[in-house]
Amino acid sequence: MRTLFSENILSPSPARAPPPNPFELLFPSSVSTTSSACSTQSSPRQNEWLTQHLQNQQRSERDAANPFSHASNAPRAHYSRRKGNPKVLFMGLRRSGKSSIQKVVFQKLSPADTLFLESTTRIETASMQSFVTFESAEVPSQLSAIAPDFDHRAAFSSAGAVIWILDVQDEFLTSISEMIQTAVFLAENYPRVNFEVFIHKTDGLSDEYKNETFREVRQRVQDELSDLGHGDRSVSYFQTSIFDHSVFEAMSKVVQKLLPQLPAMEALLNKLCSTCRIQKAYLFDTVSKIYVATDASPTFLKDYEVCSDYVDVIVDIKQIYGWHSQEGDGKAASETSQEDGGIGESMVTYDNSGDTYIYAREINDYLSLICVMGKGSSTAKRVLIDYNVSILHDALLQVFRV
Amino acid sequence: MERNKRQRQRKVLLMGRSGAGKSSMRSIIFSNYVAKDVRRLGATVDVEHSNIKFMGNLMLNLWDCGGQDSFVESYLTNQRSHVFGSVAVMIFVFDISSKEVESDMHSFAMTIRALHEHSMNSKIFVLVHKMDLVPPEQKATVFQQRAVDVRSTCVDEGFAEQQVEFWATSIWDQSLYKAWTQVVYFLVPNATAIEGMLRRLADLLDARELILYERTTCLVVTHITRESEGQNPYTDRFERISSILKTHKHSMAKHTGTMTSEVSFAEMQIKTGDFMFFIVSFTENTNLAVVMPGDEAAFNAARVNVQLARREFNHLDIVEPSGKEAQRQQ
Prior knowledge:
The complex is a heterodimer of chains A (402) and B (330).
Chain A: H1 27-41, H2 44-65, E1 87-92, H3 98-106, E2 124-128, E3 134-138, H4 152-156, E4 161-167, H5 173-189, E5 194-200, H6 207-227, E6 235-239, H7 246-257, H8 262-276, E7 278-285, E8 291-294, H9 301-321, H10 323-327, H11 331-340, E9 345-349, E10 356-362, E11 367-373, H12 382-401
Parallel strand pairs in A: 1-3, 1-4, 4-5, 5-6
Antiparallel strand pairs in A: 2-3, 7-8, 7-11, 9-10, 10-11
Helix pairs in contact in A: 1-8, 1-12, 5-6, 8-12
Chain B: H1 2-5, E1 8-16, H2 22-30, E2 47-54, E3 58-65, H3 69-76, H4 80-84, E4 89-95, H5 101-118, E5 123-129, H6 139-156, E6 164-168, H7 175-187, H8 191-205, E7 209-214, E8 220-225, H9 237-256, E9 267-271, E10 275-281, E11 286-293, H10 296-318, H11 321-329
Parallel strand pairs in B: 1-3, 1-4, 4-5, 5-6
Antiparallel strand pairs in B: 2-3, 7-8, 7-11, 9-10, 10-11
Helix pairs in contact in B: 7-9, 8-10
């Protein structure tokens, strides 16, 4: 078990776990409370050090597993200080898919209905209420960022990330040159804004073609940027398509970079996974189904898909049978549910040996924890899991209260 | 006494014009296709037989008959008694988007005339299919119209009004499950006995609702709703649950890399402050879904009670009602 926090960087935690008692479950509680205490009490400088340290660890693990995303160290240290809500800007050529992505991810539009969307003529903003308010804006393709009449201060000063949508099924060389211009402009004027590239509309292409185009795009962009002197600028690339879960996965990664609470959440999830033998844990935003944090084990798309589908099942069944509280009892019902802590919890046991397959738990109205359990989490261990997850629950609520 | 152990075979005919959607429906319900996959299906050549084991000793002998004119000709002439003899249920599929309404009705009339000759006591289910192609504001009127026309044809051919049922379906929503649930409910021999026992169980558990559904097809066999749940605004919730569970099975299969038909979970639980829901495997072919009010103690008690009740219900699979009566009298 590796310790993420060494003694000397922690401020003294307020109350240690109760003294060793053979009937109590010890080690998860002590470390989890310290990690939550750390995020609320340590000074910003220590937070930065932690952020970097964690990023390095995770990057080395992630790079081994996921060779497609790059992120360099330097710009990242700043994000823990960002104020306000995470804001994301979509840019790209016309018909590349910006409105579709925005509507599918944030407004739950069915992908088949995106055929009927009209062209956007002005900057459209949308915001999604969740545990933090996500704001997204779409810049129509006619307005180029470098045109003199474009009010770039209004658009970019509050943006956390700019996502360039590249349509891989169309001629993408012009898109690349536009993108380079915008990236250079941003690098010069707004260096703190993350720049991401979605290589979009990859559904229906053969794997070979996908990988080849991916490499080609990455190579070109890297070359052009270094020619223009911005070779050290970090750009992340994602292959996406609205018809499967890849766009949600990519949006999750983009949004994660914008959240200052991310290292605390990841640390908590790592601890949970190592103690409860969970294969993979996700913190989902229930409304949009993008995940806000995950533990450090390698990420596969299929784990995300099964968790995302399970969230759908739970939400649907909750809607069908939760009609009591929707009916109009209104205040009375919500008061009682908050008092009992009407916490939603769910699991599906996959096979007859009793190993839990997927375990889900609601943290608050917007966030849920979904875990794919591995071997060794049988019903006997249920108590351990419940206990650890409730510690995690409390810790997460504390993290977000700051 | 051997009759009790032997499988009860029920012959079900699935007929309609070519391209109406018969094989698509069959593959979605019984072969675990997703709605998108049915594009791959080609025209059915002559009759496709499937034997589907359902609820213990009920065996559905499903005849998916090709709808092209030449096949229909041959059913009505050379194979008349072979095809139309001893039919329990006839499912006729109308494609609502077809332009040849007259010829559809004519072919329907011919078919049920042949049916009346050989199995006059069979039940007819008329499925008005592809309703997703009808604009929503016209759905009700179009369906009613077709139902009226078809009913008059049936009466002309000699069938009683109660023998015919009409359902609007589409593979893209849960109406498909609703219609096929009715078909299955009609075919299950001891549905009332099952319901009686389930009602007693529901009272014991103090459950809000009990739903018994078949494991592989996720079709609802029967359900018991107690008074408090009567105001649930989602009156179509049973078929919604069918389709939710079906999608869940598909996603599980994709994740584990197995076939959807082999996937089945031992237990699923969903607990919230308002209600608690669990699904367990109940008998060999069925799962039971229980909706309880939001009380942890009652929930755990319910789980234990359902496990204990399984033994009782196992009998229902094997013994027919008449056999059971005979045993009781002894």
